[in-house]
Amino acid sequence: MPGTTSAAYVTSHFLGNIKLTEKPRFSDCVTALANSEVDAVTTDDVILAGFAAQPQYQGKLKVVGVQRVVMGPGLGHNLVPEVGDSTPFRMCGADHTVQCMFSTGTDWRSRRMRERELKEDLHRQLRGARAAVLWKLDGLSEYDVRRPLVPTGTNLLGLVKHLATVEWGHFGAAFGDPLDEHLPWVAEDTEASADMWVAPTETRGAIVALYERVAARSDEVIERLPLDAVGHVPWWPPEISRVTLHGILAHTVAEAQRHAGHADILRELVDGSTGHGPAGSLLPSDDAGWWRARFDRLERAAREAVE
To answer: Closest by alpha carbon to 211, among 163, 265, 144, 152?
Structure first.
């Protein structure tokens, strides 16, 4: 309605987390608020005060002094930090029409909790993959951590270098907080897959330390930003470089876990060692004879399948 406080104003100032659906009358929007279908209504404060004063809404609605918003009983007065931190928020308001956004049936505090738990789950998986890949280097010689073990040249220390490079771009550099050090192998004029192997002049300690520094910066970014924060991966094509923290965190977990699996196989090829970490292998046996018998049985089964 002309002259009222626009719900679009709230949307534009709170990170675009408010979606609006039209409602024909103010009364319909306030009814939706009272029924917990939306979190707040915004328009002229006199209109809102009138609704809040009606007997059927006494104790159910309150008018707060942030852009003339009337809110349900479960929400506090401090609207800016609660909504401005990317919490999904359901707003009714008026511009040229009365507008409402309907919820999925859970309040915003539950959504925030789920977002926090989701981030923690993904972050824990990323940390686990990092630890597993680094553990695969333990006890091996300089030659064994560097030597190619499959025709594509994949090697253990190269995987660490690659994952350090991936995280360097996916978090710090993508979200405006890059680690202040030069990675010469990411320049455009370097050979393909230069981050997948380690030159004789590069030490194991330097590569591991790089991964740890990059991981620490990644952790800072992940912990500081909301999952819907937007960044740009520097080496991806412009049309796909825009990412959310949620999307790139899930992507990085998948990549790190995939390479942790590669490291499992490479380490087994080197010296027969297995397991995902020092706490235990999760394998059914540690007896070499048991595994030899299993290997032979699987080999026989494979041959029988083609006979």
So the answer is: 163
Best CA proximity match to 251, nearest among 170, 176, 156, 158: 170
pTM: 0.64
| Torsion of the alpha carbons at 96, 36, 10 and 174, rounded to the nearest 10 | -130
Q: Domain boundaries in the chain?
A: 7-105, 113-287
Q: Are 18 and 101 in contact (CB under 8 A)?
A: yes
CATH superfamily placement of domain 113-287: dinb family like domain (1.20.120.450)
Cα dihedral sign, 47-49-55-58: positive
pLDDT of 253 higher than 60: yes
d(CA 114, CA 120): 10
- Report the distance separating Cα 63 and Cα 77, nearest Å: 9
pLDDT in tens, 65-123: 433 344 444 433 333 333 334 444 444 443 333 333 333 344 545 566 678 889 999 99
Q: Tell me the two tokens of residue 100.
A: 């409402």
Q: Using one digit for the tens of pLDDT, what is the confidence trace for 153-195?
A: 999 999 999 999 999 999 999 999 888 888 888 877 788 889 9
Q: Which residues 6+ apart lie within 8 Å of 238 measured at CB? A: none
Residue 155: name the closest of 206, 201, 193, 205 by CA: 193
Compare 104 and 25 and report the one with higher pLDDT: 25
